[in-house]
């Protein structure tokens, strides 16, 4: 099992059969195999980008198995297991571990957020960390959840021996910067927001889990390496060239944008699951143009 | 099958065994049986109040069966079936209908809201209305979901023959009032916000689905009847006497507050499921005082 | 001085000379004189609708003088005096009183809201109530300010002898309903949200301060009278017929919509002050249609 | 007049006489004189930190004069002039220029934000840029205003010859990073969020306008210089040592925290203006501890 969280990861898209709408495990494995020919540190399966919220438990298992097939043992298979209840999250973490996850990513529950205090959230994460056979990674994503794990909460949880690190999916570098200083600077925080990868690494981030790494993995790895090695002119130029396409396949057009871009870069893409809808032809053309721009650099 | 949506409904609490944490179907049936001795128009099973977001599919089935047992055929069994994906919602609606639901309540999906346009939401609801064997009720609850079904969207959906009506869970009477005027004033809208039940009925609401109706069903029915019959002094006085306890068991203390109040009024209550936590002894005492105040009227 | 707050008030538009952009006091007086031929209880000068935030102190004085000219002594001249600092608000309240205001409307300061606690807000209002020569009316308008006066805060402030009542500008009838119960039901709360005027009155509101009352004063007064007298069928029908035009001249198109409607109903309208911009011809036509619809009833 | 926007600036606190509450121009000049003995690039007068929203026009003039006295001609005197109306903002910009401002900082109007479109906002800024005798700096501060200048809006405005640059007061480095790439990377953007100064500079920021630069100017300048010179280990260490005190004197305790810290570092501090309130003794002690920690580095 990989000992640490660092480097660049793609949050895998879950590929569906375009006729039946069912999970296409073979296509997922093929995407992973191709991704693993680059310098990526591993993959995240069943993140928000993986339409995890739209899958049932059986489909989740198929995705984990398909991802594990393609990820070599010396790289990290991170699996999203967040559920609304503590007990369902624990069950999902156990199942993911059985199927080969090296670590699990746990988003905060959100539906009942108005009646879940920060203390209750901490208790929730602690119970999961206690029960999970593999380390857990805290997942801060205020956009979809409306919940914020504050630096004070992360500080408390970072002391748990089974908490491996944190993913911060926002452009907020104050919170990320404070968390990177925890455990005397040895608490790994990865950014989930590609347009800020370079400043995030400079502020102490250990890497990134980035939608755009599904389609331009080599460029993302290069950006990370430039940033870490102190090649700042190169890093700034590459960051700027990646920002637009990064936004197209995440904040602007979401998973539908990502799947369109996957198809343009030689990966399996295919349909999104309803209520998500495919991008229009106009948006597809814009994404194509943004991809070409980014590759030009 | 009841032809219409109207009157007062309790959104049932899902009762758990206090040792194992599993669904206690017998306790649910017992609560329903007792509730059905009053003038309630039926019940809602698996609403937000029913911790639906914290249950797995098997548990949902147990709850529906338990509720159906206690609800006579001439009253309405409404069942919450909202899921994040269209296909899972359709599957849940079909299963609920098989198990005896008279109609299903469908909340909007929320996790991917930044990439689900109003048009995509309308398509989502239409597909469910097309596929559901029983009528669907639209469910607007901006608090937990961060999604608003606008009056314009509701107007469009109200024309679908399998859309029975709407539940509006907010204190916003502008939106509710506009929706009650749809279908020439024959589109039933029920309020999910007890502190505004009286003005909501006056603005055209057909009834209410109210947490407090689990613990003070007779008073809620009386308030509705006063409002509908134009006994305004009585209605205003009763509304004011119910508002405080209504807030304690919903917006202020949520399901934990409701379960505490259930125990004080002769119903099964018991534990909430984590990440929810029980109310403190201090809050329990406040709830007891608010119950006594409300009963004094 | 009128002893109480009740009935229907228009929040006056501030009319500008269309060449110079300066305050046109004569046009304001003319509008007020015409409005005072109806059953309105008085007027509000310098509310949000009066572009108060866009005027300097000298202009504010002109507006107050112009309004006072047209409002007979037996009706109420309410003047908005909210400023960001306590001391500027007190100075504005004193000046308004000198110029003839019967009472002043005080919105909460908002710019520094993240560092103004509820206790600090209460202290702010208390100092103003202590210093103002005329009674103050609390003004809750969460939309523009991002600040909420909670029922608990209002309860505390309602005990001050120089606090006359409250204006609630939102469609939230929970908060309004709770506040109408203060001082044993004798704390006057007026609604600033015309689409909920009828249910608000039923929930205990003493009246309304409504943009639409600038253009359809008789209908607004009739709605209020129906509601208060318990003529519910008439009230509901009239509420429904007014809601659309009420939204056009407030929440949907704001002051620009109101000024367009003023011109169509025989009042002075004219330009809005930048950064506000006039409505398009298309919107103007929609407003005209909504006015005709409302008058048809 | 300085030709450009870059380096570190303190947003001056406006000092009040502790007996009368009036502006204490002499104390402001003294603070500026002391600040100007360090490597600061100039000062911002009448920013949010300067309680600008709580001052009247005459007081604003006193502050500008006092600041100009202390700022040598070869450094930049930036003056906040944002008002709610376009015409008041233009008048304030002209007056500031007469009194010696080198450039003016213009926040977006916010009170009527629901009826001010992005196009109307652009028109507002353009009119000000056209009319101002000195260059204008765009000011993005979503916290107090609830308004966001999007990168697309900034791009449009950056083409105006009298728009000098931009201040971004948020921890969002995506927006900042995109704006730094405008005008082929020659559009100066300064950060108003000290906890992200280092990553902001790396992402292309030209400097910072930082509350903490009022109390620890030398350290802020050193951090900026380390970041710009590529001394990354030093920069990261210094950033981490400044973050806590930076938060205490801005996001956490605001101006009251800043004034307490000013007094502990040999500057004039004194009272804040109501509705702001002084920090408690407990908070004062925490700020003292945070200052000592930061100076230890």
For the termini of chain A, the CA-CA separation is 35 Å
Helix content of chain A: 40-55%
Question: What is the largest interface, and how many residues per chain?
Answer: A-B, 38 and 38 residues
Quaternary state of this entry equals homotetramer
Task: Please describe the biggest sheet of chain A, giving its number of strands, its sense, and whether it closes into a barrel.
Answer: 8 strands, parallel
Secondary-structure element order of chain A, as H and E? EHEHEHEHEHHEHHEHEHHHH
Strand order of the largest sheet of chain A: 1-8-7-6-5-4-3-2
Count of alpha and pi helical runs of chain A: 13
Q: Which structural class do you get from the secondary structure elements of chain A?
A: alpha/beta
Mean pLDDT of chain A: 97
Strands of chain A, count:
8
What sort of overall outline of chain A do the alpha carbons produce when their principal axes are compared?
Answer: globular
Radius of gyration of chain A: 18 Å
Give the uncertain stretches of chain A in residue-range form: none
Sheet-strand content of chain A, in percent, reads 5-15%
């Amino acid at each position: 099992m990989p000992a640490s969280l660092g480097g660049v990861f793609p949050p895998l898209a879950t590929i569906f059969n375009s006729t039946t709408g069912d999970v296409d495990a073979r296509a997922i494995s093929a995407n992973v195999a191709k991704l693993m020919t680059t310098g990526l540190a591993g993959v995240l399966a069943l993140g928000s980008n993986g339409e995890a919220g739209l899958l049932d438990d059986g489909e989740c298992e198929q995705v984990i198995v398909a991802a594990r097939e393609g990820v070599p043992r010396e790289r990290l298979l991170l699996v999203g297991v967040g559920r609304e209840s503590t007990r369902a999250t624990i069950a999902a973490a156990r199942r993911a571990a059985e199927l080969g996850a090296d670590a699990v990513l746990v988003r905060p529950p959100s539906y009942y957020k108005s009646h879940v205090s920060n203390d209750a959230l901490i208790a929730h994460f602690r119970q999961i960390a206690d029960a999970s056979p593999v380390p857990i990674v805290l997942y801060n994503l205020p956009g979809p959840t409306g919940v914020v794990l504050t630096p004070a909460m992360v500080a408390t949880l970072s002391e748990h021996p089974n908490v491996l690190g944190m993913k911060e999916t926002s452009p907020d570098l104050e919170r990320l910067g404070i968390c990177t200083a925890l455990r005397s600077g040895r608490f790994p925080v990865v950014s989930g927001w590609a347009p800020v990868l370079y400043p995030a690494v400079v502020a102490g981030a250990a890497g990134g889990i980035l939608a755009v790494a599904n389609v331009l993995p080599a460029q993302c790895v290069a950006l990370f390496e430039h940033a870490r090695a102190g090649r700042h002119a190169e890093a700034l130029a590459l960051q700027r060239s990646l920002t637009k396409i990064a936004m197209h396949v995440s904040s602007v057009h979401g998973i539908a944008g990502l799947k369109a871009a996957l198809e343009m870069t030689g990966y399996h893409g295919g349909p999104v699951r309803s209520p998500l809808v495919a991008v229009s032809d106009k948006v597809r053309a814009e994404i194509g143009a943004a991809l070409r721009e980014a590759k030009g650099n």
